């Protein structure tokens, strides 16, 4: 059995065939899908899918790119949704330095809010971190803010979503009690993710797709979907020199423990 720890199943790109997408995931062995939020409407859509499909769970958060126009009512809703038993994590939250840098202060305030919320609600925190290629500012800021807010509080744990380095970040993340989310970029020839992941103990890794984004080979450039978690698992098995069964068992146990499912 496999768990897709990060997929946007509510996305409009699944509107025409969502049930078929879920069916293909089941056929591929993906029995659990965890849906990250990007805004309040996405949480509401995710909760509908939790009721419609067994093994689907939701998160609650504002994506960092959606914090520029966020209101106090939005943050209040995020906190309230965390009390819903269908919500198993706070996410995805963090910092995004890839696009618009004009509201960095808003992103940081939101990020700190989500860190505190995750600790108060005792839920894992799912992190979005993105920077321009070759830059590491967002990762250093993320680690610094996590350390400032946690102050040794071991309730803080979660996943660095879409992990792709730098290498030092893996050590920092693990020290902070976070797992590393491994997705389609593992299959990209020149991404460098395989070399990084090879050195990281398996117990610190979980599988994800980020569907409908970042489809793995041989579907790169096309719509991603949860069934492709299996392709990520197969590639991870090759990198680690293990069987697919060993990868599935280890990552499933780790994800279940983190999400409490």
Descriptive overview:
With 261 residues, this protein is α/β, with parallel strands linked by helices. The chain has one domain: Metal-dependent hydrolases (TIM Barrel, Alpha-Beta Barrel), CATH 3.20.20.140. The protein is built from 9 helices and 8 strands. Helix 4 (104-121) crosses helix 5. The mean pLDDT is 97.
Topology overview:
Blueprint: E1 2-4, H1 18-27, E2 30-35, H2 40-52, E3 56-60, H3 72-81, E4 87-96, H4 104-121, E5 125-130, H5 137-150, E6 158-160, H6 167-175, E7 178-182, H7 193-198, E8 205-207, H8 229-240, H9 244-259
Helix pairs in contact: 4-5, 8-9
Q: Which features does this protein show?
A:
globular; 16% strand; TIM Barrel; 8 strands; 261 residues; 9 helices; eight-stranded parallel β-sheet; alpha/beta
What is the compact description of this entry?
The chain is of the alpha/beta class. It has helices at residues 18-27, 40-52, 72-81, 104-121, 137-150, 167-175, 193-198, 229-240, 244-259, and strands at 2-4, 30-35, 56-60, 87-96, 125-130, 158-160, 178-182, 205-207. The longest helix has 18 residues, at 104-121.
């Amino acid at each position: 059995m496999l768990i897709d720890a990060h997929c946007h199943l509510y996305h409009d790109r699944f509107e025409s065939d969502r049930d078929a997408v879920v069916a293909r995931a089941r056929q591929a062995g993906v029995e659990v899908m965890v849906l990250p939020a990007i805004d309040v409407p996405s949480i509401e859509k995710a909760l509908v899918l939790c009721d419609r499909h067994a093994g689907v769970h939701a998160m609650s958060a504002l994506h960092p790119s959606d914090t520029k126009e966020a209101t106090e009512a939005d943050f209040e809703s995020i906190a309230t949704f965390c009390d819903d038993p269908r919500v198993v994590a706070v996410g995805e939250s963090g910092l995004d330095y890839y696009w618009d840098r004009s509201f960095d202060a808003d992103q940081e305030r939101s990020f700190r809010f989500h860190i505190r919320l995750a600790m108060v609600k005792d839920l894992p925190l799912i992190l979005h971190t993105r920077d321009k290629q070759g830059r590491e500012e967002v990762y250093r800021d993320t680690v610094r803010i996590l350390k400032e807010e946690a102050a040794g509080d071991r309730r803080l744990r979660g996943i660095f979503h879409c992990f792709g380095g730098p290498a030092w970040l893996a050590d920092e993340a693990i020290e902070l009690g976070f797992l590393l989310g491994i997705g389609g970029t593992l299959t990209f020839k020149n991404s460098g993710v395989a070399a990084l992941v090879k050195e990281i103990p398996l117990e610190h890794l979980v599988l994800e797709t980020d569907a409908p984004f970042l489809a793995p080979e041989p579907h790169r450039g096309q719509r991603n979907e949860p069934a492709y978690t299996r392709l990520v698992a197969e590639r991870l098995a090759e990198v680690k020199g293990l069987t697919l069964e060993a990868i599935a068992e280890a990552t499933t146990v780790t994800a279940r423990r983190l999400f409490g499912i």
